[in-house]
Structures are given as structure tokens and as C-alpha cells.
Amino acid sequence: MTAPTYLPPIAPGRQALIGHAVPLLRDRLGFLQDLRAAGPIVRIELGPKSLTVVNSHDLIHEMLTSKSHQFSKGLLFEKLKLFGADALPVAEGKRHLTRRRLMQPAFHRERVSGYVQTMRETAEAAIARWRDGHHLDLKTEMQLIAQSVVMSVAFTTNPELETARALLTSVDTVFKTAFWRALLPLPLLERLPTRRNRQVARAGEILREAVADIITDHRANPEAYDDVVSLLLAAQDETGAPLPDGDILSEVTGLLAAGSETTAVVLAWLFHELGRHPELEQRLHHEVDTVLAGQTLTAAHLPQLTFTRRLVSETLRLYSPAWLVTRQAIESVQLGDVALPAGTDLLWSPYTLHRDAALYPEPLRFDPDRWLPERPQPPKGAFIPFGLGKRQCAGDAFAWTEAVIVTALIASRWRLRPYPGASPRPIGEITVHPSSLRMTATARESRPIREAA
Predict the structure, then answer these.
(1) Is 240 among the domain residues?
(2) Does 273 reside within a domain?
């Protein structure tokens, strides 16, 4: 057996850059991309903290599957407990397994196919507000659509636009705070009555109040609902007792937050790329027009929208929303040839993994046809936009379905043209989002809609 390797305190040749963590704070995505050349596992210093960056897709696969029991979710997810200490996305150990088993039926592929009509109707109502020739803040528009979809499907509610925007602002505030608290962990500052801390406290209150109202209405009218909130209200813990109100509140709040962000940024980047590649936009329009043929979109149409799905896949690759994922070793563990003591903080980047030239030919080229079955595919573990193993996102089928539906609906009715002079940059915060993305909505020729046979 190969003797374990202990990493030096700082990656060779990068002391001047890493000592004060300036590159990671200023150009987070570029810094991590450059760091891939330093080796499969690299140790960096971030202020007083030492972080181990895992670059190898094989070692990431090992960490997330066969050795997943030796790691907790780490720094970033600890800070995301602002949404609730035991919600599924941040729960650990037995609590995570119990919650995942509880929530999984709501996101089973067969159940998701039953959500198509609600997803379609919700997205249609949102894009019906657009006007020909109007300029759109596309990231915000996609966030509002994604938030409305998750609220309509999971909570059977659809708030007024003003309320929806307030919720969206609150989610953004909490996400940004969690990100910076993970990147620059200063526990003392988190407890001081600063302006930022007051903002995040108020944002949390807005989210909890909105979710509490939803739960109250479900309790008062249980026969009117059959959704995720109903499932949680009917659930029992390991002792047979109903879930505490705080647990239900945490789960619903966490789901609202997650559902408002990741799919939204993928859709925003997808239409940005279509604006840059009109030949791909034409292919999308041709597929949507041919498959739908004037019919209302249904679940039966989704398997036929193959190019649409490849567009989503390529956007997930090039703009992986989860650019930074953390783990912490809960016991001494060997990862590849490297021995990691208990307490080691690790991070890895799906964004840089998916842009690795050793894994993807012409990695910076937006090429949806790289996902054609006859083309060479990346090795196992090299394309993991929703994670791997026991902590793979439980809502991956929901997100795929939603992204394909929204893409097809918008393409059937609108062209989105780049705003003159706009040059959006990827910004790594809680997700990879565009620095600014304004596009002009141009109506396509309307076609009469026929109900599917």
C-alpha cells in the first residue's frame, strides 16, 4: 500500500497569492480554476483557516460515495442553517437520512411528471406579463418564475408579485450572508448588531412569516391540499409523534430558498448563450414548434424535447450553479494517497471540474451537441451538477423537468435578444450568477394553442 501523503501547509509556488486569500476573495472562480494545475489535492490558507481543495474527479467521487460517511457537509452548509438547523439540505447523519426518506416521495420521478401542468401554468402566467420590446432583468425574471413554480407545486400557493419580490430579496440576503460567513468565518461579528446582521435577521423573519402563514392555512383547510406541506404535516418522527412546528418551518423555508435560486440561474445563463448563438436558438425554436405543433405542453412532450434537454445539460456544465461545495472530515481519513486528519475542511468546485480541458474538449465552448450519445462522454464522476451519493440533490428530477418546461415555453413565444453593450460576467456567490443580464423580449409569431389529444 502506498504510504499516505501529508500536504504542505500551502500549495507549492502559491505562497504569495494564498497567504492573504486575496485571489479567492477577488476572483473566486478564476482562482479555483487556476488552482487545478497545482494538483489533485491542494492546501490553501484563507485567513486563519487552512482549506483543502479537491480537484480530481476520482477523489471527489470517492469522497461523495464510498467514503461519504467520513465527512460532514462542512463550512458552507453550517452557515446555511440560517434557513433552519435541521432542514434536509443541511441536516447530518441519521436526521438527514430520516428527512430524505420523508421528502423523497414528493420528488420521485413519477410524482414529478404529475407536476407538469402546474409548472406549465405557473410559468405561462409569468411570461404573459412580458411585453414586446421590453427590457428584462433576466436573472430576476427567472428567479421569480422558479420561486413561483416551487411555491405552486410544493405549497399550492402563488403570492402576489410584490410579495414574491420581497421573498426573493429575503432569500438573496440570507444566501449572501451565509456565503460570506463561510468564506470569512468571524463568529464574533455574526453576533454584533451591525446593519448586515439586522438585514439578515429581518430577511429571516419575512421568510418565516410567509411560510408560517402557508402552514396555518394548510392546517385550517387540510382537505384542500395534497402537496409537500401536507406531507410534512402528516409525517411522524421516530417516536410516532408529529413533526415539531419548527422542523416543518425549516423544511418548507429551505425548500423555498433552494427552489428560487439554482434553476433560475441556469435558465438565465441558457438564454444568455442562446442570445449569443442565434443558430442554436433557431434549432430550439424548430424543435419546440415541431414537437408541440400548436398543442399545450404536457408530460408526454418532454421526452421528445431532446435538443432542449441538451441545452440544459450544457448550461449545467458550463455554468454549474454550485461553484463551491464544502465538506469536513469527521474522522481521520485517507483520500487517494493523502491522509486527512479529523477536522480537515475541504472544498471542491463543480464549476471548475466541468470546465477542465482534460475532461471536456474545448471546455469553454457552449456546445449542446457534446451530449449526443454518439459523442465521447466525460468519465464517471466528471459531470455532477446535482452532486453524488447519499447527498445527491433530492430535487434533481424536479429541476430537470422545470428547466426543460420553462425553456420550451419561453422559446415557443419569445426571442430574447442581448442588451446592447452588455457583457455579463460569472460571479461566484451562493451560486454562479451573471453580474448583470438584461435582455430584450421580442414576441414570436403567435400560434393557436390546441389541447393535446
Answers:
(1) yes
(2) yes
